[in-house]
Write a structure and sequence with these properties.
Blueprint (H helix, E strand, L loop, with lengths): L1 E3 L1 H5 L4 E8 L4 E3 L2 E17 L2 E15 L6 E15 L9 E3 L4 E3 H11 L38 H14 L1
Parallel strand pairs: 6-7
Antiparallel strand pairs: 1-8, 2-4, 3-4, 4-5, 5-6
The structure holds zinc ion (2 copies).
């Protein structure tokens, strides 16, 4: 949304508290759908000549899918914003955004901050059993019997055994 920063522009050096919301388009991150909802910012804006500095916390709910079982996952995310809104933002500085008139757009700055806080992968729970690679069953919902007998053939367990033996030498 557009946030009115005219107070800060009129009174450089003075900090004004603010609250704002933001709308972030659904996106795809590393092949996973990511959707931010209830995006809220709160913090301070400070005028600095022809620029406004924004120091804020942004909170949002983020919806994606579990990396193991592909079921929907919803998490709460918090990120810090320290951005400069300038008449002529430096395109090489990721913390600078455009100041147009006496308004700033909160959507971009909120999205950039939240993306930096995304977990490497989403998990529905720490104990997610995932999908069986053999039969495709979601093992959180129903057990399957594919594991039996196959586990010892796993090339990774053979490899980790080799590595362990190496270390002991
Ligand atoms: Zn899962
Ligand atoms: Zn199975």
């Amino acid at each position: 949304m557009l946030l009115d920063v005219s107070r800060a522009c009129r009174d450089p050096g003075q900090s004004y508290p603010f609250k704002a919301e933001a709308d972030i388009e659904p996106m795809t991150v590393l092949d996973d759908p990511v959707r931010f909802t209830n995006v809220r910012l709160s913090g301070q804006m400070t005028g600095a000549g022809e620029a406004v500095r924004l120091s804020a916390t942004v909170e949002a709910d983020v919806e994606s899918r579990c990396a193991l079982c592909l079921e929907p996952v919803k998490q709460h995310l918090t990120a810090e914003i320290d951005a400069l809104f300038a008449r002529e933002p430096d395109p090489d500085d990721p913390d600078q955004f455009p100041l147009e008139g006496y308004r700033i757009e909160t959507n971009d700055v909120a999205r950039e901050a939240l993306l930096l806080e995304l977990p490497m992968r989403f998990l529905c729970s720490d104990s997610c059993k995932g999908i069986c690679p053999t039969c495709g069953t979601n093992r959180n919902i129903a057990p399957c019997t594919c594991q039996e007998g196959g586990e010892r053939q796993n090339p990774f367990s053979a490899l980790s055994k080799l590595l362990t033996e190496d270390e002991e030498v």
